[in-house]
Design a protein that fits this description.
The strands form 4 sheets. Strands 8-9-10-12-11 form a 5-stranded mixed β-barrel. It has a 4-stranded mixed sheet with strand order 1-6-7-3, with no helix packed on it. It has 292 residues and is α+β, with helices and mostly antiparallel strands. It contains 6 helices and 17 strands.
Length: 292
């Protein structure tokens, strides 16, 4: 039996890299990176026979004499201040457990949410008994990372009015390292939809709310979204997936440019490989021209 095993370097798509840039060297597990002499071992490396070797498939990164390998694909490792999209999985004593696309579920404490009406008071037994009326299993929320525990799990908070329960929309999952870190992860696109770019790789797409009301916990899941908004949401979703497929950074500008380039295609045409490549290639050229 013939078995064909492709290296990670063969699977990487270099079509969207700048023509003037050199493709990064991708190391596979067990491959020698460099001699250990004069260098320190970092994450994603180990020492064998006087050489530093990779433990994961990824790209070498050097910080002074520290050598690390950043994996091509990895679970989300949260940092304080990150904006995340999460799904409630369980209610326990005075807290919710939520899935954030990480190794461990995060926790949202009852004391870390803003009560309906903006009340500022101690949480009592009545609040604990009413937890399921605020958030129940399966609900999607937007939140911010408040702290990191010793085991790597995260604690979230929703004390700002911009965070809360999510209503009608579409959830798109991409690699977390494709989300560009910025000061603002809440964006209103010119097409009439809003996106929340979660640092954990979850992207929420919904119709733009013109009422400017705080998010909170009151959402109308029975509201009918008109066909035009649904088509626009589908278009944005397909554009985001195209950017993700070609490993381009996802942020407001790249989505907006790709959305503008997609107008010559129907929503269903955006599912074809030819349309995706054309849109991403044109978007890349526009981003390069903006940087020059």
């Amino acid at each position: 039996m013939n078995i064909s095993i492709s290296l990670a370097s063969k699977k990487t798509r270099h079509a969207v890299l700048k023509p003037s840039s050199n493709p990064p060297i991708i190391f596979t597990p067990g491959e020698k990176i460099r001699d250990q002499a004069g260098f320190m071992r970092g994450h994603g490396t180990y020492v064998s026979a006087g050489s530093l070797k990779a433990t994961v498939a990824g790209v070498e990164q050097n910080i002074n004499k520290l050598v690390t390998v950043s994996p091509l694909r990895c679970r989300y490792n949260g940092e304080i201040g990150d904006v995340v999209i999460a799904r409630v999985t369980e209610l326990v004593h005075k807290r919710w457990k939520v899935d954030i696309n990480a190794r461990l579920d995060a926790v949202l404490l009852l004391t870390s949410i803003q009560l309906p009406g903006g009340e500022l008071r101690r949480r009592g037994m009545e609040d604990e008994q009413s937890m399921r009326s605020y958030l129940s299993e399966g609900d999607l929320i937007s939140a911010e990372v408040h702290s990191v525990f010793a085991d790597g799990s995260l604690s979230l908070h929703m004390r700002s009015l911009k965070y809360g329960k999510l209503g009608q929309g579409v959830l798109v999952k991409v690699q977390s390292n494709l989300i560009k870190r910025s000061k603002n992860h809440f964006h209103n696109l010119s097409a009439g939809v809003s996106v929340i770019l979660g640092n954990n790789g979850y992207i929420w797409i919904e119709p733009t709310n013109d009422n400017k009301d705080p998010v909170g916990f009151e959402v109308d899941l029975q509201q009918v979204v008109d066909i035009g908004d649904r088509q626009t949401i589908s278009r944005v979703r397909n554009v985001v997936l195209a950017l993700s497929y070609y490993k381009m950074l996802i942020y407001d500008t790249s989505i907006q440019y790709a959305l503008e380039e997609s107008n010559k295609y129907t929503v269903s045409d955006l599912l074809t490989a030819e349309a995706c490549y054309d849109i991403v290639n044109l978007t890349r050229h526009r981003l390069q021209a903006m940087d020059e």
